[in-house]
Design goal:
Shape: elongated
Strand content: under 5%
Helix content: 55-70%
Number of domains: 2
Oligomer: single chain
Distance between the termini: 24 Å
Number of strands: 0
Order of helices and strands: HHHHHHHH
Largest sheet: none
Structural class: mainly alpha
């Protein structure tokens, strides 16, 4: 399931890149590398704003999240990035946005949808579930 999601996310990112680079108009005289000239390390360390500047498009929130998730998958495939998300950030997200915290830990799968349903029921069950899932992840 994760490999399918990774393939879809990476192909979406590349489709956005390839589909929009032909229409990019340089604003200044400095040379900006094209997406095909970038190395994997440059793509992994690129911000969404850098991607927007190079491709000449404005990404919506969903596309930015997919871009960041694809970068995280590339980092894990390289073995250069940290293998687990920051604990403090995850526990803060568990309290304020429980489904996002669970999605960052386990991708969008069974645990995520259970948490979404629990959060919609009243909020507090989703928060408790997110803390339980996070504590199991960090054991």
């Amino acid at each position: 399931m994760k490999s399918i999601f990774t393939t879809i996310a990476f192909s979406l990112m590349m489709a956005v890149c390839v589909g929009t680079t032909a229409y990019a108009i340089p604003v200044n005289d400095t040379h900006q590398p094209e997406l095909s000239e970038l190395t994997v390390d440059q793509i992994v360390n690129m911000t969404a704003r850098d991607f927007e500047e190079i491709s000449g498009t404005n990404l919506n929130l969903r596309q930015k999240v997919v871009f960041k998730m694809a970068q995280n998958k590339l980092k894990k495939a390289q073995g250069n990035g940290s293998e687990e998300p920051d604990k403090v950030l995850i526990y803060v997200l568990c309290f304020f946005i429980p489904p996002l915290a669970v999605a960052l830990l386990y991708d969008i799968g069974k645990e995520f949808w259970v948490n979404v349903i629990l959060t919609l029921l009243c909020g507090l069950p989703g928060v408790i579930h997110a803390f339980v899932v996070a504590s199991k992840y960090y054991r």
